[in-house]
UniProtKB/TrEMBL annotation:
Organism (species): Rufibacter glacialis
Alphabetic keyword roster: ATP-binding, Kinase, Lipid biosynthesis, Lipid metabolism, Magnesium, Metal-binding, Nucleotide-binding, Phospholipid biosynthesis, Phospholipid metabolism, Transferase
The EC number(s) this enzyme carries: 2.7.1.-
Pfam families xref list: DAGK_cat (PF00781), YegS_C (PF19279)
InterPro entries xrefs: ATP-NAD_kinase_N (IPR017438), Diacylglycerol/lipid_kinase (IPR005218), Diacylglycerol_kinase_cat_dom (IPR001206), Lipid_Phosphate_FormReg (IPR050187), NAD/diacylglycerol_kinase_sf (IPR016064), YegS/DAGK_C (IPR045540)
Segments forming domain DAGKc: 13-143
One MF term in the entry's GO annotations: kinase activity
Required co-factors: Mg(2+)
Stored PANTHER family: LIPID KINASE YEGS, SPHINGOSINE KINASE
Protein name as it appears in the record: Diacylglycerol kinase family protein
């Protein structure tokens, strides 16, 4: 009798609202129609979908907030890490969860969360969801969910933002070109009660383990431990940069004597010269002072955390 009642309740449960926020500019353009994929693969007994397109940078945050206000249980970012960041800003600290259909060129957070990069499979994950709470961070008040950084990776984000080219090979070409002109600036990193001063090539703050494209800046980062991993890389020459690149792609950077790691919940950086910085790969500007903070378990996501990339 009780069994029948549960079955009947399951049958009458209405699908919950899911908003898909799609950035038409993200990733390498392809002929795949995401609305068609959603129509074909989303379980409409589980989710009642609504699809909205972004019209400009920053729009996804407004759309995500509107979706939450309209009662969405799930807000899905369809795009790369920039779109994921914008949607997650509107979803964190609410009763809605973030989903990801990875359509970018790097897909760092999706990879860390074990979300399939093949869209029908990512939709299958939404159909049978596992919900997790993950940490998020801010750098000078700008939220990030994957990584942020100062120095060379900040410079690269600024040049990439101005470029119309997307994809891994364009990115690698840009990194090599900018490396030749880059000059490490002096900075003081205040972390766990110590002041560390040096000419830093990169100061990276990792909530997740990778930048994207399986480039692991902090292979041991745990997105649910309430701590960020800080990776300090001091001034490097060409040979060391190649070694670092190899370490990033082979998950071995934590064993390199070129990188130093700390875990913490807050960190400050001061620099006499303005430094470029990024949040989730998006260029955020220049500053001489930085404060990076951690907000434990502040974002609910649909993920497959056991299947970390
Ligand atoms: N309609 C739009 N027109 C132009 N830019 C947009 C639009 N919608 C969003 N954007 C901006 O596009 C930028 C890139 O988005 P996103 O990061 O998702 O893609 P990507 O750069 O191709 O992927 P990845 O970050 O994985 O390399 C973001 O800065 C976002 O603000």
């Amino acid at each position: 009798m009780a069994k029948t009642t549960v079955q009947q309740m399951e049958q009458v449960t209405a699908p919950e609202k899911a908003y898909f926020i799609l950035n038409p500019k993200s990733g390498v353009q392809s002929s795949i129609s995401v609305p068609d994929l959603i129509a074909e693969h989303l379980d409409t007994a589980r989710w009642s979908p609504e699809i909205v397109l972004t019209q400009h940078a920053g729009h996804a945050t407004d759309l995500a907030r509107q979706a939450v206000a309209a009662g969405a249980r799930l807000v899905v970012a369809v795009g790369g890490d920039g779109t994921v960041n914008e949607v997650a800003r509107g979803v964190k600290d609410t009763s809605a969860a973030l989903g990801i259909l990875p359509k970018g060129s790097g897909n760092g957070l999706a990879r860390h969360l074990g979300i399939p990069l093949v869209l029908p499979q990512a939709l299958a994950l939404l159909n049978e969801p596992t919900f997790h709470h993950i940490d998020s961070c801010t750098i000078n008040g700008h939220p990030f969910f994957c990584t942020a950084g100062i120095g060379f990776d900040g410079l690269v984000s600024s040049v990439f933002a101005a470029s119309t080219k997307r994809g891994l090979s364009s990115y690698v070409q840009l990194v090599v070109r900018e490396f030749r002109n880059f000059k490490s600036e002096t900075a003081t990193v205040s972390i766990n009660g110590r002041d560390l001063t040096s000419d830093f090539f990169v100061v990276a703050f990792a909530n997740a383990s990778q930048y994207g494209n399986n480039a692991y800046i902090a292979p041991n980062a745990d997105i649910q431990d309430g701590l960020m991993d800080v990776c300090l890389i001091r001034h490097v020459g060409v040979a060391e940069a190649i070694q670092l690149g190899f370490g990033l792609m082979t998950k071995q950077i934590a064993h390199s004597n070129l990188a130093e790691f700390h875990t913490c919940s807050t960190v400050q950086v001061q620099s006499p010269e303005p430094q470029y910085f990024h949040a989730d790969g998006e260029f955020m500007g220049q500053a001489t002072e930085f404060e990076v903070k951690m907000y434990p378990k502040s974002l609910e996501v649909i993920a497959s955390l056991g299947a970390k990339a």
